[in-house]
Amino acid sequence: MNTTTRRAFLQGTSLTVLFSLAALRPAQAQAPAPATLPGSLNNNRQLDAWLRINPNETVTMFTGKVELGQGILTALTQIVADELDVDPKRLEVVSGDTSRTPNEGVTSGSLSIQDSGTALRMACAEARSLLLQAAAAKLGVAVADVRVSDGVVTTAQGTARTTYWDVSGDASLHREATAKVAPKPANQHRLIGQSVKRRDIPAKVTGGAAYVHDIRLPGMVHARVVRSHIPRARLVSVDAAAVSAMPGVVAVVRDGNFLGVAAKREEQAIAAWRALHANARWESTGELPPAGAALFEYMKKARSSETVVNTKAATPPVAGATTLSAEYTRPYQAHGSIGPSCALAQWDQGKLRVWCHSQGVFPLRADMAKALRTPPANITIVHGEGSGCYGHNGADDVAMDAALIARALPGVPVRLQWMREDEFGFEPLGSPMVIQMRASLDASGQVVDWNHELWSYTHSTRPNDPEGSNLLAAWQIKDPLPPGPSRNLAQPSGGGDRNAVPLYVFAQQKITNHLLLDQPIRTSALRTLGAYANVFAAESFMDEMAGAAGADPIEFRLAHLNDPRGRAVIERVAAMAQWKSKPAADTREARKPVAGGVLKGRGIAFAKYKTLAVYCAVIADVQVDTATGEVKVLNAWSAADAGLIVNPDGFKNQIEGGIIQSASWTLHESVPYDSRQLTTRNWPEYQILRFPEMPVVLVELINRPEERSLGVGEGAQGPAAAAIANAFANATGRRMRDLPLTAERVKARLA
Amino acid sequence: MSVTLNVNGKQITSPAAPDTPLLYVLRNDVGINSAKYGCGEAMCGACTVLLDGKPIRSCVYPAAKAADGKITTLEGLGSPERLHALQRAFIEEQAAQCGYCSSGMIMSAKSLLERIPNPTVLQIREALTGHLCRCGTHTRIVKAIQRAAKELQG
């Protein structure tokens, strides 16, 4: 589409918007504001948006949240089955489909139980009440005199019966939710709180069609996208004709700097992809930031926006007797999904249908519509599972890539899977961070002043930015859209500053965030956003302060923590690991020689994720080989509290996985690059934790049925990282402040 | 040009060129879902299948080279109705999050249990060194393999 058309299109859009707002205004002025409804019910207010009672004795439940391997769809069926009183076998789940499900934004931030779970719970409670009223009327008894079990409604005496399916016509769910029917109390739950087995695992271990990757459509062709590893590279030239003549090739698509190819067979598409790589010439359009330690000095001077996130001043001001300061860093890190991103796309008479593993099909549709210059109504996006994503990986970009190639082949379904080097080269990375800590202790060993100052690139460049487009291909096409600006998510959840505000009680504190405004290397959400590095820094620093105070790490934490649930997970994990009280290592002037051989140590750390989700404490045992510099995590214990637990085994799986993933980030992971390009092509350049390095992990949960359910998926990563670093200090008397704890760095630190 | 293969006891003929990696023939001509593309260079294990009982990386293994042997994929181990002990154990232990790596892990575990019916934790970890899991489900995978070993030994 040329520039004139594009401008006309955008003008048209803004006119429509103005018109609609004007049309709405008088009505809004008269009508009272609609009541706030709980969870995602607030934005998707119709009961039948969530539930449908089918004549064939099944129930269809709809959710905008999607399965990412975290078990969310199983947990949601437990909620629905309990609230509605139907067997989970009767439940059909529809999730993440722009033509069928509620729009619940992105499945991220450990929010699905809170958003979708709450909405489904309230909608089911209300639907159950409507169905029971209709059933009671049909049976000619009072509502109080009917019982329901698996959708079968009987009178109290059991003399008459009907079913949800019989009365569904009399109890229309096509009405707005009121959220006035109370859901069941915890003592009536049968499935909530049980380790119900995941619905998705049987297909995954028997070769069922479990992933987007497994969708095969009639007449489907295979595509690949060709990109330079130089960010924002300009495509100077490519010999498309030569590649078009290769066996099986059906289209070579070039649109500005976007280049892709489709062929009848997958191996033919890969051969053509290789050939295009061999003959395409790319030009760099800018430099990358310096690598290694220089990156962090560069970041502190880079263009940024400074915010004092939180401040608390004591009256009178406190003068600390002992002040410590330290700087912690985290490099660029990758999502590193095992399965490269994949999508299918098919254009049919100007309408586009996409199958992909995006975490947010509605936000993706908005960005694709902008870039493809077509109204969102022309695009349908359906979620299918992908390989674990751990945040914003290539899932959205590959969908746009597939759509661009499919546009050249009207009517033909196109399957595009990124190659391994595409995933490593083009996924948005987790941002590097620099964190400076400074704190003062009074004579009694209490922290009286706490300062946490951080520098970070953005952690949020997901699709549907109001000012730009956050799809890679949208920046490459000949009529490109600009990327959205760097943004930070607001506190209390925060983005770069996530978990920078302490849960501990200090007389005086100041938290400062520097959001870097440029994005020389693309960054976005990697599981926990800034929390991983902030908790690593703050909880390492708590141990440094404890060391200066001559205090035991656990006693020191408890002396600053009022939150009873925080205290409880710390005390529980201490009991699990049989923690023995001992002063933390004083690492201020660690010039004492380190003993040789293999040293062992133990460390603890704690966080309440986002300061509003799961409470999680972790104790780690590490072993440090002073000769090789190798650090191994031997054992890890964790205690966690997420209020009312929906599925204990699913919760444990998330905490176990979080600890192991964090051990991998913490010991190994850093994305390499030179002055021109990212240099990872395959796993040898990006090592992750392997089986022989696995710690033994034990997790215990504290269930609080009276408390609301909190997100659990990202609670363990920050505490695990700091527990490992604290165990290292306990083993060696030296402090590691730069992630990851590679053998080379360890040897330098111990020298 | 064509390649004839024996996959899970069935003869199939694919129009692929002989040097085509077995993975694409299995997925696109035989309709196998279990073997996955992960790295394309035999570095992650997601594409693992058995050739005459031995694990191979189908993403780099030329299809024609597999023509004389018997290929077994996860589908050939068992079905949802008739699960193999390993499949049952992975379900019982809930030894997956995303599950993208599971299929390759199970195939290597199958070969391990043929060689060592009652492996130690160390031997299991050693056998899976070349398999990557990103969700951190490793400890459950080890438990599932131990569980299957126990069941198979009766």
CATH-defined topology of the largest domain in chain B:
Ubiquitin-like (UB roll)
Distance between the termini of chain A: 62 Å
Report the biggest beta sheet of chain A as strand number plus sense, adding barrel if it closes. Answer: 7 strands, mixed
CATH superfamily of the largest domain in chain B: Beta-grasp domain
Low-confidence stretches of chain A: 1-28
CATH homology superfamily of the largest domain in chain A: Aldehyde oxidase/xanthine dehydrogenase, molybdopterin binding domain
Q: How many β-strands of chain B, per DSSP?
A: 5
The end-to-end distance of chain B, rounded to whole angstroms, is 47 Å
Strand order of the largest sheet of chain B: 2-1-5-3-4
- What is the total number of structural domains of chain A? 4
Tell me roughly what share of residues is in helical segments of chain A.
25-40%
CATH class of the largest domain in chain A: Alpha Beta
Overall pLDDT of chain A: 94
Shape of chain A: globular
Largest sheet of chain B: 5 strands, mixed
What does this structure look like?
The complex is a heterodimer of chains A (751) and B (154). Residues 1-28 of chain A have low confidence and may be disordered. Chain A has 4 domains: 1-32; 39-192, Aldehyde oxidase/xanthine dehydrogenase, molybdopterin binding domain (Aldehyde Oxidoreductase, domain 4, 2-Layer Sandwich), CATH 3.30.365.10; 213-284 and 335-426, Aldehyde Oxidoreductase, domain 4, CATH 3.30.365; 526-750, Aldehyde Oxidoreductase, domain 4 (2-Layer Sandwich), CATH 3.30.365. Chain A is an alpha+beta fold and 751 residues long. By secondary structure, chain B is an alpha+beta fold. Chain B has 2 domains: 3-76, Ubiquitin-like (UB roll), CATH 3.10.20; 85-153, DNA polymerase, domain 1. A 5-stranded mixed sheet of chain B has the order 2-1-5-3-4, sandwiched between helices. In chain B, a hairpin with a 2-residue loop joins β3 (48-51) and β4 (54-57). Chain B is globular and about 45 Å long. At the A-B interface, α5 and α16 of A face α1, α3, α4, α5 and α6 of B.
